[in-house]
Design goal:
48% of the residues lie in helices and 14% in strands. With 253 residues, it is of the alpha+beta class. The chain folds into 2 domains: 10-98, Chitinase A, domain 3; 108-237, Tetratricopeptide repeat domain (Serine Threonine Protein Phosphatase 5, Tetratricopeptide repeat, Alpha Horseshoe). Strands 2-1-4-3 form a 4-stranded antiparallel β-sheet. Helix 6 (200-212) runs antiparallel to helix 7 (216-229) and helix 7 packs antiparallel against helix 8 (234-247). The N and C termini lie far apart (86 Å).
Length: 253
Amino acid sequence: GGLRPRPGQEVLVKVLGALEDGGLVERDPRLTFVPGHGDVVQALELGVPTMHPGEIAFFLAACPYAYGRPGSRPCACREPDVPPEAPLLFEVTLLEVRDDPDPQPLPSAARLRLGSQRRDRGNFHFARGDFAAALRSYELALRALDGPASDSPGPEEEEELQEQRVKCLNNCAAAELKLGRAEKALAACEAALRISPDNGRALLRRGQLLAEQGRDAEAALVLRRALELDPASKVIHAELSRLAKRQSPPSSA
């Protein structure tokens, strides 16, 4: 009963995914996504909008509609590996269709789980070179992590929420760079450093981006701080050496 999901609506589904030999590789009793956002595999993106609420459907997905030719490593919602070029059988139950995908109040554990799931999906897109889709998934992950809470997170949950936010922002910076948007990549790095001022990955990338803009003095300060945190980093040493050479006056003949 009920109408099929329309574009822009959010769906809640129960999903089981299995290999041809029956091995279970995916189990999610409450997966939420908006079809068209690139947040799930193509089999679900294309299949769920054909369903009615309460319906149970089976989708046999060739590898391009599942996890592609490379397969996929385990993540928070999927064990074990999905082998390369593996077709999958999905059993999907459409539990609910919501008109407005605005973030709903969720307990902290659910926000963490949803953020991790969406970041994993972004990594999937990034590994395949679809950087726009990766960025969209990372932004959706941040939306989940920053969304309204139905509880007060404890100290450990709050720390994990912050760690996940920093990871997503660093991933956003990487995707923005691949898309040729250095200013947005720099903004993502700076957002990560506002949360975690000593995050080595964000410091290194910020230093590199500042150097590319010719802001050598600022870049050197940032890179020296990164080097204090990771003295053995060959990459940071190389960046600082490059800056020093650029700033040194040419020797006279």
